[in-house]
Design a protein that fits this description.
With about 350 residues, the chain is of the alpha+beta class. It is built from 11 helices and 14 strands. Helix 1 packs parallel to helix 4, helix 3 packs parallel to helix 4 and helix 7 crosses helix 11.
């Protein structure tokens, strides 16, 4: 057995503790901007703290929890050396799952795993997460940065996060509130959001051989700029909607597309019909389909097709809801309706062709 290996150290094994400490110092400024009055303590503790006495104003508070990542969109960020936007993506993917049940996001923690700690890069990632938390109205109370040399390449990383929210028990949204006659309101996406990037990368980068710096006339900008467009964060818009009008359910359109995600909040006694002609998807969806020869059904199973969130509400709430969302600069439109169903309940049908 070999002993006393010359030069053996954690740094020699690829883990730089000093670089990690520098990253923490750089990110503190941004984390400080993503706080709520209930936040306790600062960055650097073993656990994030949140004052739960804020929950005493609830009669029966239900805590909601969600966790997610950004998927292979991080590969685009790494190639472009732009890292703050995927932090906002991470927040959107987590908090917009929480708000579906009517929960207000309270606090979030993140996990950043890197092949090598570049302090400025880690700080940029956390900056984006902090900015996203500020847009979502939740606190960033802590996180972890892990260096995994040998498992990830020096330029590689992945990010994940978890958040907790709260909703009053008798205000919980979901399938049990949905009724025949309800209207399906679509909230526009900012772009691809953070799903389907394995397909998009395969089609545009690998199959077509496009570079990220390529100017794409249909986009009015480069391919890289289009692919890094941050995911829209809907949580505060949805909470404002709940406060202003009667809402029965939300559906966050992520992996699986519009039909599969809307079906998750439908009871077995109803079905939804969506009219494709009520909107025109952004050019990026047409480009992926045309360049890759991807069938419409496959696109709709994989990508959001321009709808990032769906609200299901009674007819009387439609006009005030649209007015409120317009005030908040969220594109929205009536996309379909809920019908009773004796058979094939809980299903979603998309009919017609997209507007041109």
């Amino acid at each position: 057995m070999t002993t006393n290996a010359p030069g053996a150290s954690y740094a020699a094994a690829g883990v730089d503790i000093e670089a990690g400490e520098t990253a923490v110092r750089l990110m503190k400024e941004w984390v400080a901007k993503a706080q709520r009055p209930e936040s306790v303590g600062g960055l650097g503790g073993f656990a994030g703290l949140f004052d739960a006495s804020a929950l005493t104003r609830y009669r029966r508070p239900l805590l909601a929890s969600a966790t997610d990542g950004v998927g292979t969109k991080v590969a685009i960020a790494q190639r472009l050396d732009i890292h703050d936007t995927v932090g906002r993506d991470l927040v959107a993917m987590v908090v917009d799952d929480l708000v579906v049940c009517g929960a207000e996001p309270l606090f979030m923690t993140d996990y950043v795993c890197v092949g090598k700690v570049y302090p400025e890069r880690v700080a940029a990632l956390v900056k984006g997460i902090a900015e996203g938390c500020a847009l979502a109205g939740c606190a960033l109370v802590g996180g972890e940065t892990a260096e995994h040399p040998g498992l990830l390449g020096p330029e590689e990383y992945d990010i994940a996060g978890a958040a907790t929210g709260v909703v009053e028990a008798d205000q919980l949204l979901g399938a049990d509130r949905v009724r025949p006659g309800d209207v399906v309101l679509a909230l526009g996406a900012s772009g691809l959001h953070s799903n389907g990037y394995s397909l998009v990368r395969h089609v545009l980068l690998n199959h077509a051989g496009w570079g990220l710096e390529r100017e794409v006339p249909e986009f009015g900008r480069t391919l890289g700029e289009e692919l890094l467009e941050p995911t829209r964060i809907y949580s505060l818009d949805c909470l404002a909607l709940i406060e202003a009008v009667e809402v029965h359910a939300f559906a966050h359109v992520t992996g699986g597309g519009l039909a599969n995600n809307l079906a998750r909040v439908l009871p077995g006694t109803v079905r939804a019909e969506i009219d494709r002609g009520s909107w025109r998807p952004a050019p990026v969806f047409d480009v992926v389909g045309a360049v890759g020869g991807v069938a419409r059904d496959e696109l709709e199973r994989t990508l959001n097709m321009g709808v990032g969130m769906v609200a299901v509400l009674p007819p009387a709430a439609v006009e005030p809801a649209l007015a409120l969302l317009a005030e908040r600069s969220v594109p929205a439109w009536v996309a379909g309706e809920i019908h009773g169903a004796d058979e094939a309940g809980g299903t979603v049908t998309l009919s017609g062709n997209y507007a041109s």
